[in-house]
Amino acid sequence: MTATRTTCPYCGVGCGVVATPDGQGGAAIAGDPEHPANFGRLCSKGSALGETLGLETRLLHPMMRDAGGALRRASWDAALDRVAEGFATAIRRHGPDSVAFYLSGQLLTEDYYVANKLMKGFIGSGNVDTNSRLCMASSVAGHKRAFGSDTVPGCYDDLDEADLLVLVGSNAAWCHPVLWQRMQKSRERGARMVVIDPRGTATGEGADTHLAIRHGTDAVLFAGLLVHLADARAAALPFIADHTSGFALALAAARALAPNLAEVAAKTGLAAADLRAFFSEWASTERVVTLYSQGVNQAVAGTDKVNAIINCHLATGRIGRPGMGPFSLTGQPNAMGGREVGGLANQLAAHMGFSPSEVDRVGRFWGAPMMATREGRKAVDLFDAIERGAIKALWVMGTNPTVSLPRADAARAAMAKLDLLVVSENVLSTDSSAAAHVLLPAAAWGEKDGTVTNSERRISRQRPFLPMPGEVRPDWQALAGVAARLGWGEAFAFDGPAAIFREHAALSAFENAGARDFDIGGLATLSDAAYEAFEPTQWPVRRPAHPPLEGEGRREAAGWGEGRAGRDPAVSSSMPGVTPPRRSLAVDPPPQGEGGAAPSVAEPRGTARLFADGRFFTPDRRARFVAIAAAQPPRVTPEHPLVLNTGRVRDQWHTMMRTGLSPRLGGHRPEPTLEVHPDDADRFGLSDGGLCRVSSVHGAATLRVAVSMAQTPGTVFAPIHWNDETAADARVGALVHAVVDPFSGQPDAKATACAVAPVASTLSGFVLSRRRITLPRRMFWAWSAIVGGYVARLAGNGAAAEILAALEAALPGCEIARYIDAEHDVGRAALIVDGRLEAVVYTAPAGQEPGWAGLLDLWAKPKLERRDRLAVLSGAAGPAGSDDGPLVCACFGVSENRVRAAVAGGCRDPASLGAALKAGTNCGSCIPELKRLVAAADRPMALAGE
């Protein structure tokens, strides 16, 4: 079959993928060696994409809820008629602001563009927001405050050229493994790495220094760094004077927040010596890249944290040149593309806002009859408005808000109040589709056709390599169908994604003349064939005829020169509180095509770096320093004495609707856990491997306890992925408070006050099933994929008969063979269809957990023999402890027990383990765990020799 070059649908790294269909609905997946984001490397999730391509969980045709509340199959015409009628009724009765779209960073840019155009240009409301609000809105706000635009200054090549890599609130080893490997290569050539994170993570283990900062004090740390740069004469005063404004106010605010090293140490919880070393290293190293992610963005003061980082780079002029600059690590595959087309409620398309001139410009370009004139509701406010009844109709596309939003229980209850809830999904059953009035089957990865933009502004194609099954359609086509029914068919008469992309590109250049950062006008005339063959390209890509701006020039090769017109009078070499530098900061001239706010000629490859000439996208072309305010520490109470931090695990993605289908990805962290410091475990009576109930004022979840020194006392950590489809009671979003950053509207997912308590358990066991089934919710269970089905681990208070009854109800008509010893709480049962195992359940008293690995040979058999049935019921096929242990390397399926055996056989480092098992030789995200297993084996040996 023909191989297709496409782009990975997971994180914002935007890795190139080569997919070769197998002719049976699947495909072989490999990294694209020619894609500049990854050069052929893939992480564990990307490597396992082929395991997620089946139709088992797919929504394949439209469905509508009838008067009795049942979902029934419908035609596309009937479904779109109902959507259009519901939106039209709400608009007629309550106005355009009574309807909304809630989108996703997994949508393609073309889908995003059509949704934004329909709502903001034709319905006339700004109510388009996205789950990207939950991950990078604070970065957007910080960029706009500093640069006048949402511009990422640098590129991935900067990671190769930096001499100091500073990661703030980022577990890149797990969340961005391909870039992490690139950073490790830089360490091999001598670059140093500092990780700033309150948690111990795989990223911190792989760094030269881990600064375990107190929760929420990142801005204090970087305010202290700004003060140090000024006092140590490390600030680039000529650059500050010629190209920025607001330095004096920002420095004064930093001094108030972090007046001296002792104060910074007291507030951050770091040792003064460690701070002094970090400040000195940052100040003395010219090529510094500061990378930040959700630990910075997902905070009540996330935007100030972003600007505190950017302030330090502006103060030293370390921006727009190779190997330096602030860099936002984006969480979703097309969060950047969504930002480009106005997917956020406070933006219009092409990075324009809601000023009267911008509203007029976009309206004239679109020929829009009902142009929105003000910002819409951001995500948290949007769902609050649904709860109040202000929003009557909502269209959700490609996201699962009843799991991912803060106060997720309240979001679920609010959605049930809507007059019309439309959900466009490629999965039949999600938490968010349970209350939908209309379900629309959307194209999945492998079927999608369009573009995405990664964290370094690189636009890449997602190309289809599988046909759309059933009655599936792309999202833009469903939107265009509703637009036509509302009377605007001509404006949405696109004949394919290439036409949408051309319109999007043309709008970016419309009345631009270099004044706006986002400009891909050079791509506005791509033919369909050129669009199909489009190579990954970084924006801006301006039209070749674009004239340079008046006075536009490049920075002098000798440094940030004195005497340029327009010097900021507030900054001078005799400025109070600032010692002048001994000399100007020497710089190399920027490479051709990399340095202007508006290059005169668009290059085919686009533009790698911006701001090299010191010109920004503010009205006066100066960057803005931002005065940072003091942030309140996380608030705990006697009833909720701990701080809950949430995030990802290595091998899962968002709410597991795709990664949860892969056997390889389910083996590393198969259950939802709460990581707790040993001191807190003792304090609250928790035991490692036991169950606990974690609660906040908003909700609660039951999780498996993982005692870990990686946590700081007083804090706990829970992953975000599990939901009601995959676990009994593990929706962590239900606990998270709805506190948001005042500038970005991004919710704080890192510091919710919570309480924990142990949960007694009398039963343990497992269920094997060909498909996921809802088991009794009063017990603890969580599904993970295995070859040929799923396994759920059981714990809690219940009985074998209760589990079996749930299986029988879900699998009517099965032949059932069972053995139950109620006196000893032992139960075993096999559910059989046409001679093949359909489900198996084993239960035993707590502490006597049965294993299932011994059943896997029988699980794979197409037909059981009589002795096989006896083996299942007797327990002889699956003795306790027969499992191979957690998966360490998901890329090559290497389990913990295999690693331990290799260590016992003489392997003493990741390199030798890689040679023996291949573990750690692909994405490398398991290398810290390999090191821990080697160290754990060496400790008893050291003790024995003492």
UniProtKB/TrEMBL annotation:
<dbReference type="GO" id="GO:0042128">
    <property type="term" value="P:nitrate assimilation"/>
</dbReference>
<keyword id="KW-0500">Molybdenum</keyword>
<dbReference type="Pfam" id="PF04324">
    <property type="entry name" value="Fer2_BFD"/>
</dbReference>
<dbReference type="Pfam" id="PF04879">
    <property type="entry name" value="Molybdop_Fe4S4"/>
</dbReference>
<dbReference type="InterPro" id="IPR027467">
    <property type="entry name" value="MopterinOxRdtase_cofactor_BS"/>
</dbReference>
<dbReference type="InterPro" id="IPR009010">
    <property type="entry name" value="Asp_de-COase-like_dom_sf"/>
</dbReference>
<protein>
    <submittedName>
        <fullName>Nitrate reductase</fullName>
    </submittedName>
</protein>
<dbReference type="GO" id="GO:0051539">
    <property type="term" value="F:4 iron, 4 sulfur cluster binding"/>
</dbReference>
<dbReference type="GO" id="GO:0045333">
    <property type="term" value="P:cellular respiration"/>
</dbReference>
<dbReference type="GO" id="GO:0043546">
    <property type="term" value="F:molybdopterin cofactor binding"/>
</dbReference>
<dbReference type="Pfam" id="PF00384">
    <property type="entry name" value="Molybdopterin"/>
</dbReference>
<dbReference type="InterPro" id="IPR006963">
    <property type="entry name" value="Mopterin_OxRdtase_4Fe-4S_dom"/>
</dbReference>
<keyword id="KW-0534">Nitrate assimilation</keyword>
<feature type="region of interest" description="Disordered">
    <location>
        <begin position="540"/>
        <end position="605"/>
    </location>
</feature>
<dbReference type="InterPro" id="IPR006656">
    <property type="entry name" value="Mopterin_OxRdtase"/>
</dbReference>
<keyword id="KW-0004">4Fe-4S</keyword>
<dbReference type="InterPro" id="IPR007419">
    <property type="entry name" value="BFD-like_2Fe2S-bd_dom"/>
</dbReference>
<dbReference type="Pfam" id="PF01568">
    <property type="entry name" value="Molydop_binding"/>
</dbReference>
<feature type="domain" description="4Fe-4S Mo/W bis-MGD-type">
    <location>
        <begin position="1"/>
        <end position="57"/>
    </location>
</feature>
<dbReference type="InterPro" id="IPR041957">
    <property type="entry name" value="CT_Nitrate-R-NapA-like"/>
</dbReference>
<keyword id="KW-0411">Iron-sulfur</keyword>
<comment type="similarity">
    <text>Belongs to the prokaryotic molybdopterin-containing oxidoreductase family. NasA/NapA/NarB subfamily.</text>
</comment>
<dbReference type="GO" id="GO:0016491">
    <property type="term" value="F:oxidoreductase activity"/>
</dbReference>
<keyword id="KW-0560">Oxidoreductase</keyword>
<dbReference type="GO" id="GO:0016020">
    <property type="term" value="C:membrane"/>
</dbReference>
<keyword id="KW-0408">Iron</keyword>
<dbReference type="InterPro" id="IPR050123">
    <property type="entry name" value="Prok_molybdopt-oxidoreductase"/>
</dbReference>
<dbReference type="GO" id="GO:0046872">
    <property type="term" value="F:metal ion binding"/>
</dbReference>
<keyword id="KW-0479">Metal-binding</keyword>
<dbReference type="InterPro" id="IPR041854">
    <property type="entry name" value="BFD-like_2Fe2S-bd_dom_sf"/>
</dbReference>
<dbReference type="InterPro" id="IPR006657">
    <property type="entry name" value="MoPterin_dinucl-bd_dom"/>
</dbReference>
<dbReference type="GO" id="GO:1990204">
    <property type="term" value="C:oxidoreductase complex"/>
</dbReference>
